[in-house]
Amino acid sequence: MRILAPIKIALRALRRNKLRTLLTMLGIIIGVAAVIAMVGIGNGAKAQIEAQIASLGQNVILIFSGSQTRSGVHTGWGGAGTLTIEDADAMRREIQGVVAVSPEIRSAAQVIAGSQNWMPQILGEGPEYFDIRQWPLKDGAGFSEQDVRGATKVAVIGKTTAEQLFGSESPIGQIVRIKNVPFTILGLLSSKGLSVMGSDQDDVLIVPYTSAMKRILGVTTLRSIMVQASDPKLLPVVQQQLTELLRQRHRITPGKDDDFTVRGQQDIADMATAQSKTMTVLLAAIAGVSLIVGGIGIMNIMLVSVTERTREIGIRMAVGARGWDILLQFLIEAVTLSAIGGLIGITLGVSAPRIVQFVATACAALKIPSDFLSAVAGWPTLTSVPTIVIAFLFSAMTGIFFGFYPARKASRLDPIEALRYE
Questions:
Q1: 218 Cβ partners below 8 Å, 6+ apart?
Q2: Is the dihedral of CA 335, 19, 294, 414 positive or negative?
Q3: Nearest to residue 27, comparing CAs of 335, 341, 333?
Q4: Pairing state of beta strands 111-113 and 175-178?
């Protein structure tokens, strides 16, 4: 019962100045809402990146050809054609645990179909590429190993490229020209969407890698090789064996740098998500500043409240209230301010994506320009329960931290001086 009296007095004092109470809570509300919204955006981006990495396929290892240096400038991965078809054949033949291999050539070229033209990404791949990427065909069929051996002029087309070249018409059986070389479309790929880097994965035309090397680019080396392991547990072992095999085949002596780069799927995921993690922490830290500002506002108002209620404090002490009772009363007021503000902030933070989507939809319906709102509404968000709990506890701790000094000051007032205060 003793704890209930200070709680009632504290709540009564807060209701007495409703506007001031609301304005005091505003900093906490904005801070908590901003933290939850920013962390939700960061987690959503991270989850989207992880999903896109998974779209590469299961247990995938990428081998990139090496870098070359021109006038002191490194060209980076794939700058020099150090990988060969024989390397890919050796990987398939000599390394246990490898279930699929696809040599890869990448380029961009103008593709012409009738009176339409488009410049998609041209991929030269092996027939196992579609199984490695887990990329099924929506219509038609893929090319075969026989097409690879014969460097046949056939292709599989992505959804975006097909729409740009043929509109709503089926691309199956159509002829496209790549650098004046006619290719017959065998299949239409199902949609993959955007890649990790934000590029359209469906804006692509895939041909046998031998056709790309001989008929389009006129090269004899590969830029990369895609390998699939049979089990995720074998990935580190297979990566090591691939490295040893290529060093042996390329006659790289101990102490010399590799002329290739081997990257596992987890390595790629770690690199892709590192930036989103950093951005999430940065956004949360910036939003957290609002919580500190809100805490300072609570301290300021509580100090003003102590000054205004000095005589009240003196009277309570004169009739038997102890310093602990006064301390508890003002501390409860501060914690109540921050806790209620935290709950409101949590509600706004969780609802923010839906609110933005509603406003963006309304603007679109009313034909009001809202490019920014449309872009923000498209951001993925993922709000977790731990984030909500931590934000609430942090807001409550803010009230305790910033409310303790005013409460302590009130509890240490001299009753006689307080009663004399005008």
A1: none
A2: negative
A3: 341
A4: antiparallel
SS3 242: helix
Q: How many other CB atoms sit within 10 Å of the CB of residue 391? A: 26
Q: Which two tokens stand for residue 172?
A: 């199956």
pLDDT along the chain (422 residues), means of 10: 65 77 81 80 71 70 71 48 90 90 92 92 94 90 94 95 93 94 95 72 94 92 90 87 91 87 74 68 74 79 76 76 77 82 84 66 58 50 75 80 78 68 54
Cα dihedral sign for 159, 161, 166, 172? negative
CB contact set of 312 (below 8 Å; sequence gap of 6+): none
Q: CB within 8 A of 404, min separation 6: which ones?
A: 331, 334
Residues across the chain = 422
Give how far the C-alpha of residue 235 lies from the chain's centroid of Cα atoms, to the nearest Å: 24
Burial of residue 257 (CB within 10 Å: 0-12, 13-18, 19+) is exposed
Strand pairing report for 60-65 and 260-264: antiparallel
3-state secondary structure of 282: helix
Residue 401 and residue 295 in contact, taking contact as beta carbons nearer than 8 Å: yes
The answer to whether the CB of 412 falls within 8 A of the CB of 327 is no
Instruction: Please answer whether residues 25 and 31 qualify as being in contact, where contact means their C-beta atoms are separated by less than 8 angstroms.
Output: no
Structure tokens at 114: 């009738």
User: Bridge-partner residues for 205, per DSSP?
Assistant: 122, 157
Nearest to 95 by CA among 220, 248, 209: 248
8 Å CB contact between 93 and 227: no
